[in-house]
Specification:
Elements: H1 2-29, H2 31-49, H3 51-64, H4 76-94, H5 103-106, H6 108-123, H7 131-154, H8 158-182, H9 201-221, H10 226-245, H11 249-264, H12 270-291, H13 294-301, H14 305-311, H15 313-327, H16 338-341, H17 368-405, H18 408-427, H19 437-459, H20 462-469
Length: 472
């Protein structure tokens, strides 16, 4: 009988011994590789045990991937994403059918939109001038679409949603503190602007607006918990301080958009939010008028419109991008191919000032929506916008459902998540982050929170929880 029990009982110990031996051999060859493998194995154990924990760790890694600790080749972000995907597949295949939430079952239209968008981007390689670039972009969209689907499964309960939202807030706060304290250098164009772990002040500004939105929502939702409210308030203050030092005009525009949306969807808190928004807007104007660093103030306010057009590369890129759209409006030139074809459109009628941004230092369009329109055409942009709108609508429906069942804390967080989404989406008018991980994490929270709200409504959980935890 003992012989029959031995394999099952000793298998985990044997696997652990084998892993330790493997780590020892790798560490003897390359100590850094040994540390990397040890961390990866620990992450794998945690993720296979609890998918939500794996997602929380992935969020931390995403925010830290450009620090000096990040690898140059196979980054830890890619490895954690791969492990998370494997854990998700293992979870679905090892549990009874129907025990886990699947976006394919509960949101079929959104699922078909995701599949159609990925398929359309991939098909674009058949007419793209450089098919490899199109396939590279398609792989990026595929990865964030997989992340979207995983988030829906991982955020299956109220507690899981709270953990993920808290991690996003904490990661944004730590990113802000890292930049404010250590002030890492950006590229040569951004020496006077805060970049932190993101390395691009405009992208950082968008993320900080999202972090401020979530932290502000938590500050309202955590009434009665002094310590947690102090932490949320500190996170909001760090995000706002770092946002101002990015010197990002687009960041300030999306910050204003987030404040406006917060008031519009504020529900019963609309009056209070309107007052807070006015105070924040007024404080922002006073800061930039009197206290902002001179180089930031000069960047934001001293150039006339004509000077901006001559010095700001976005205007040239937008003009060239629109010429590409006029030439190929329906199907585009293929994802990732704008830089390959943009030089052909410089000699079209009309003035462009920064031709160096097309010839000497080619890059994207610096507008996510125009970028998609130029490269994937009207069809690709329509599919992408449908995914965005579906995610936003799901977040709003989640807020209304939480309101209906009396879970006002989660209602506030759902509304804050929608505000964070809209802030990043507004920023994408000025940056090329259509496949950004933070954006797709936020988008995925829309349907995920709706699923949590529907389960709570079905189980009659929300009102009881709010009654038990409310201090009023």
């Amino acid at each position: 009988m003992a012989a029959r029990v031995w394999p099952a009982g000793w298998a985990p110990a044997g696997a652990a011994l084998l892993a330790c031996a493997m780590i020892g051999v790798i560490s003897g060859i390359d100590p850094r590789a040994g540390v990397f493998v040890t961390i990866a194995l620990a992450f794998a154990v945690l993720t296979f045990a609890d998918l939500t924990t794996g997602l929380v760790i992935l969020i931390v890694v995403v925010f830290a991937e450009t620090t000096p600790l990040a690898g140059a080749t196979l980054t830890f972000t890619k490895l954690t994403g791969l492990i998370l995907a494997c854990a998700w597949i293992a979870r679905l295949t090892s549990r009874p059918a129907g025990s886990d939430r699947l976006i394919f079952n509960e949101h079929p239209v959104l699922s078909y939109l995701l599949l159609a968008f990925i398929a359309w981007v991939t098909i674009g390689s058949t007419w793209a001038e450089v098919p490899a670039a199109t396939l590279t972009d398609a792989s990026r969209f595929l990865l964030v679409a997989i992340l979207y689907v995983i988030v829906y499964t991982a955020v299956g309960t109220r507690d899981a949603a709270v953990r993920v939202l808290a991690t996003l807030i904490a990661a944004a706060a730590v990113t802000s503190a890292y930049g404010l304290v250590l002030r890492p250098e950006g590229n040569l164009e951004n020496l006077d602007r805060l970049t932190s772990t993101i390395r691009d002040p405009n992208v950082l500004a968008a993320i900080l607006v999202a972090g401020f939105s979530l932290a502000g929502a938590a500050l309202l939702a955590l009434r009665g918990s002094t310590g947690a409210r102090l932490a949320a308030g500190l996170a909001a203050a760090l995000c706002l301080s770092a946002l101002f030092l990015t010197g990002s005009r687009g960041g300030l525009v999306c910050f204003g958009a987030a404040l406006l949306v917060a008031v519009l969807i504020g529900g019963r808190w609309r009056a209070k939010l309107a007052l807070i928004a006015v105070l924040i807007a007024g404080g922002t104007l006073v800061y930039f008028a009197l206290y902002a660093p001179p180089e930031i103030r000069e960047r934001l306010g001293n150039a006339s419109q004509g000077e901006i057009e001559q010095t700001e590369g976005r205007f040239t890129l937008w003009a060239v991008g629109w010429r590409v759209v006029q030439d190929e409006p329906v199907i585009g030139v293929g994802a990732g191919n704008f830089t390959e074809v943009s030089t052909r459109y410089l000699l079209e009628p009309g003035t462009v000032f920064r031709t160096d941004r097309v010839i000497d230092n080619p890059g994207g369009v610096h507008n996510s929506y125009l970028q998609l329109l130029t490269e994937t055409g009207l069809i690709g942009l329509a599919l992408y916008l449908a995914i965005l709108l579906s995610s936003l609508a799901a977040g709003l429906r989640a807020a209304r459902t939480f309101e209906r069942i009396g879970d006002w804390r989660m209602e506030i967080m759902a509304r804050g998540t929608v505000v964070a989404m809209t802030g990043v989406l507004a920023a994408n008018f000025f940056i090329g982050q259509e496949s950004g991980k933070v954006l797709w994490l936020l988008l995925a929270l829309g349907p995920a929170l709706l699923g949590v709200a529907r389960v709570a409504e079905r189980d009659g959980y929300g009102a009881e929880r709010s009654a038990a935890t409310s201090d009023s």
